[in-house]
Amino acid sequence: MNILVDIGNSRSKYCCADSNNINCLTQITAVDNESFNQCFFERHFINAEKVIVANVSSDLLTSNLKCWCNRRNLAYIEVKSEESRGRVTSAYEKPQQLGVDRWLTLLATAELYPNKSVLIIDVGTATTIDLLDSSGQHLGGWILAGISTLFNSVLKETNKVNATITNDASLAFGSNTSSNVNNACWAATVGLIEQAISQAKEELNQLDEIIITGGNSKEIEKLTSAKLTQIDELIFYGLQSYC
Predict the structure, then answer these.
(1) Contact 236/159 with Cβ under 8 angstroms?
(2) Which one of 5, 124, 133, 138 is CB 3.0 to 4.6 Å from 91, fit for a cystine?
């Protein structure tokens, strides 16, 4: 059994996969990074044969997991961004500088949509955009602060803007400071996405698919008229490339 692990900035997620078949993933489970420790590994990873990890957070988390795997004689793979793999070629001059989460979404997209041009939107702690053409060539992308980061940056950089973040996604003009700031963050993100779609269509003769993933994807889908396909497991499909 393979354990696939996605270590994020505040939470880690994992699932099991018996092969590289995209239909064999078990349910994805999330845990706060503070609890992602050796006691957790003993309870949940004890039957693993191989652990495959992507990490965008503290190296301490992967160091602890690697040490645990070594003591158990388990194969351990920490995925790094590459120049090319399978159908995908990175657009970066220094491929290792592309975030591993973005690299994995590219690999997953090429597997799910072979010979298709796809715009990938990931709306999590950061909002990232990546464009993949039908040959598997990555054409680059954009990075913007995520919704909560945008909100907090307004408060941090101003002295007299007092607002409270909410979970209500809206593009309406606000009638108080909190709704002004909250709704502007959603509007900025939706505007980025709609501009990215326009830019992708300008760069390609045909844009076949637009997929969205990440914690804010459901809310974004409600706010845009663009036809988006939501795939929550995208990073894990990419991790399966290393099984």
Answers:
(1) no
(2) 138
